[in-house]
Every structure is written in structure tokens, then in C-alpha cells.
Amino acid sequence: MSLKQLEVSSFEEIIYNKGEACLVIFSRKSCHVCQEVTDVLEDLVDQYEGKFGFYYVDVEEQKSLFQQFSLKGVPQILFFNEGEYQGKMAGSVEDDQIEEKIAEVLDN
User: Fold this and answer.
1) Contact 12, 24 (CB under 8 A)
2) What is d(CA 57, CA 66) in angstroms, rounded to the nearest whole number?
3) Number of Cβ atoms within 10 Å of the Cβ of 6
4) What is the pTM of this model?
5) Where's the Thioredoxin domain (predicted)?
6) Torsion of CA 20, 6, 11, 86, to 10 degrees
7) Average pLDDT per run of 10 along the chain, which is 108 residues long?
């Protein structure tokens, strides 16, 4: 998996301290839709190298992060830039939808 896994401390560091432009997918290993969306994200990683970060949170291992954002169900993709929440996508999404949102986040 080319997405970097985040825990509470690394999440705080990357999202809030560094303020990296990125997305974080909240997923579960046993979720088939999560796996499909993760595959789509992994196909985009190289294209955005150095410009936009791709991370994931395993909701079974990091329940507190999942609860912190009051998320309901998985997969959920949250977008951040400069420590600010920029929106989310839920469920099955296509690569062009994700790329549109990334462009929007990078333009802010």
C-alpha cells in the first residue's frame, strides 16, 4: 500500500503542525468499498508526488480519530490544507471526482 498510515500523533503532526495539503481516507480492512476506493487513490499518488499527500486511517485501530470527526460509516475521505478541513467524500468515488476536489483544495 502506497498510502501512509496515520495514528493520532502523526495525524496531528501532518495535518495541523505541517499543514500539508492532503487527503485522509478513513477505512476498514474488511470493507470491500474501502479497498476499491483505496486502489483508486493509490493510482493517483505518483501523479501528485510532492504536491499533495495521501494517507489512511484504519478506523478499527484509531477509533478516537474516527470519532473526532463524527464520521458515520466508511470509506470517508477528508481533505485538508494548511491545517484546515476542506471537505469530504463518502462511499464509492471515481478518480475524476477525487482529482477535481484535489484541484479545489490546492487552489485555496
Assistant:
1) no
2) 8
3) 22
4) 0.95
5) 1-107
6) 50
7) 89 95 96 96 94 96 91 95 96 95 93
Reduced to 3 states, what is the DSSP secondary structure of residue 43? Answer: helix
Q: Which residue has the cell 501512509?
A: 4
Residue indicated by cell numbers 502523526:
10
> Can you tell me the distance from the alpha carbon of 20 to that of 8, in angstroms, rounded to the nearest whole number?
16
Q: What is the 3-state secondary structure (H, E, C) of 45-92?
A: HHHHCCCCEEEEEECCCCHHHHHHCCCCCCCEEEEEECCEEEEEEECC
Report the distance separating Cα 21 and Cα 71, nearest Å: 21
Q: Find cell 483544495 and name the residue.
A: 105
Place of cell 483505496: 38
At 106 the pLDDT is 95
CA distances from 1 to 4, 5, 17, 38, 84 (A): 8, 9, 25, 9, 26
Rounded distance, CA 18 to CA 15, Å?
6
Give the pLDDT score at 58. Answer: 96
CA–CA separation, 39 and 13 (whole Å): 25
